[in-house]
From TrEMBL:
HAMAP family: Idi_2
Pfam family, one: FMN_dh
Protein name: Isopentenyl-diphosphate delta-isomerase
Positions of FMN binding: S30, N61, K127, T157, G208, V209, R210, A229, K230
Essential cofactor(s): Mg(2+); NADPH; FMN
Length: 289
């Protein structure tokens, strides 16, 4: 979720302890600051995670644009920083386009992803940041050798909208207009999940996922897991016990959905029947799958 500022140390400590206690995975925010800034408190905002959760499944995070700039040794430093079990590579091109200081050079990112897939010591997850991943992109990522795809679709936090506020504060009216104009851009999470599972065997559904029932719906669409961020933010400011309670709520909600659909396993839930309605059905019907 976060990292790169000393104010996030206690948030990450609480999240990590809860992840360790409940057996769920935890992903960090971009580790670019930890690699590039000579600041012990910034570094601690990342390293605290492994210190607090020595046995948890932790994944690191770098942007696709950074992969073009870093050699494999530097990327390995991000892995070693937190003893990561896997590395997430995030795609945030729309967010960058809406930033006054944004990097809008997307050339060679796919080649850079393929290179780290071949050379890095841990598996690679490629994730969007709120705009979803199409079937065509999933097909390219699968060919590049990524181990998992996190759709991070439209329906959750709109980073384009957030950047519009930042641009307004920075007196950058053009980026403000772009951020506002594209705040509704993207593939809805459910539709993106359907497209991606047709191309890759390991798909994570995130983007507006708020409950265990949402996770169950994503799994019914073919995902192997669901990812959440916002529901954990407030509990994380209160401490690990509050996060653990929220996780236990989610587990109970997921188990209830499995029980009432007769799904004894995640594999069973993936095979359960579902119905698409409204705009989701309209969207999927218009896409050639």
């Amino acid at each position: 979720m976060t990292g790169g500022h000393e104010n996030t140390i206690e948030i990450n400590r609480a999240l990590a302890r809860a992840a360790s206690e409940t057996g769920i995975a935890m992903g960090l925010g971009s580790q670019r600051a930890g690699l590039e800034l000579d600041d012990e408190r910034v570094l601690e905002s990342y390293t605290v995670v492994r210190d607090a959760a020595p046995d948890a499944f932790i994944y690191g995070n770098l942007g696709a644009a950074q992969l073009r700039e870093y050699d494999i040794e530097t990327v390995e430093r991000a892995v070693e920083m937190i003893e990561a079990d896997t590395l997430a590579v995030h795609l945030n091109f729309l967010q960058e386009a809406a930033q006054p200081e944004g990097d809008v050079d997307g050339r060679d990112c796919l080649a850079a992803i393929e290179h780290v897939c071949e050379c890095l010591s841990v598996p690679i997850i490629v994730k969007e940041t709120g705009n979803g991943i199409s079937g065509e992109t999933a097909q390219k990522l699968t060919a590049a050798g990524v181990d998992a795809i996190d759709v991070a679709g439209k329906g959750g936090t709109t980073w384009s909208g957030i950047e519009a506020y930042r641009a307004a504060a920075a007196n950058a009216p053009r980026q403000q207009r772009i951020g506002t104009l594209f705040r509704e851009w993207g593939i809805p999470t459910a539709a993106s999940t359907i497209e991606c599972v047709a191309e890759h065997e390991c798909v994570i559904a995130s983007g507006g996922v708020r409950t265990g029932l949402d996770v169950a719906k994503a799994i019914a669409l073919g995902a192997l897991a669901g990812g959440l961020a916002k529901p954990f933010l407030k509990p994380a400011t209160e401490g690990p016990e509050a996060v653990i309670e929220r996780v236990e709520d989610l587990i109970a909600e997921l188990q209830t959905a499995m029980f009432i659909t007769g799904s004894g396993t995640i594999e069973d839930l993936q095979q359960t029947e579902y119905v698409l309605q409204g705009k989701t059905r309209e969207y999927v019907d218009q896409r050639p799958l």
